[in-house]
Amino acid sequence: MTSIRAADGDQETSAVRTRGWAASVTMAATVFTVVTAEMLPVGLLTPLSSALHVTEGAAGLSLTVTGIVAAIAPPVLPALLGKLDRRTVLSALMVLLAVAAFAAAVAPVFAVYLGARVLMGISIGGVWLLAVGLARRVVPEHAAGPATSLIFSGIGIASVLGVPAGAYVGELAGWRWAFAGIGVLSIALAVALRRYLPSLAAEQAVRLRDVGAVLRIRQVRVGLALVALIVTGHFAAYTYVRPLIEPHTGPALIGTLLLAYGAAGVAGNFLSGALRPVRALMIVAGGIGLVAYAMPVLGTTLAGSLVLLVIWGFAYGGTSVSTQAWTHAAAPSAPESSSAVLVGVFNGSIALGAFTGGQVADRFGTTTVTWLPAVLATAALAVLLANYRTAARAAESSSPKVSSSFSGE
Hints:
Elements: H1 2-39, H2 41-51, H3 56-81, H4 86-105, H5 110-131, H6 135-138, H7 144-173, H8 175-196, H9 208-215, H10 218-238, H11 241-249, H12 254-273, H13 277-298, H14 302-316, H15 319-330, H16 335-364, H17 371-398
Helix pairs in contact: 1-5, 1-7, 1-8, 2-3, 2-7, 3-5, 3-16, 4-5, 4-8, 7-8, 7-12, 9-16, 10-13, 10-15, 10-16, 10-17, 12-14, 12-15, 13-14, 13-15, 13-17, 15-16
Subcellular location: Cell membrane
Organism: Kribbella solani
Main location: membrane
């Protein structure tokens, strides 16, 4: 009888483990979808702006609007959601994303499309909020780290593959079908979340004083400054990558070039995961800065555009994993608070980058937007160098044998 009970217990444990990993994979797919939805206009900017009769700079504002709403939503939603089961909330957020995507797909005018992007921002911010710390609730404690990495791998993969996939669909069937595809995928994931996630009771929300405590940590502030510089600079130019390279490559090759960017980004994502955060972020900032300085000169041919996009994708592909690693190392005892702050700054930087790039593109021409990431990436490298020296001196004064996650040793 004892052996039978033990066997039953092992089977039950195995079932729980399997369900937990299925939930993690489903959440990774959910994160991939919301990030792809947010970034989708990047690969569709030219046909989208033409169809809705606005400038490319104005069309790029749709990223700004979504980023602002996604940054504001996380601290506001917990009070509105109350004690609702978080599994139900996640499913509802994906249904909301589907409604927003379908609305964008049929939008007759820019105002309707912009309204759809506001709804997307609510969904994206809510999913970000609930994804943080979810792994530890669906898998055994010893597997929480790998499961968290799996869930957030959806960010990096979406950032580098979602846009080219959308561009391909847009090229083959039209930009509206790309948004419709997001709608279909969101409905499927709403069902999958109900199927694979366990019931998730509401936890205590991150309080403002918790956020304030995290912000008093110097390395957290440094990390957020790096996020603001790198992500703002990146999206100032990347939002307008299609009109930037299309005159030299032609519309038929946009999807292929962005796919090369995406493949390089996946490689950069995995490489950055194996490096210390400071070294990974040096590669990120250095690569983006190099491309930004070289684009006006070398990006005027198909071959030049391809090479620069591969370098750009490889560099930026490591941004999500390296900034998450940085904030975790800076505040290991407060992962929820540090992640909430990181999400807000990341999405706010997307909004600021898209807005600033749009203003520059409309006033001075699309080709000038690359100077923004050039300056901001250089500033990020300067911050990294100054922080490296400070952290190395602190580690040396405390103990010659102590290495710092922020000194790269």
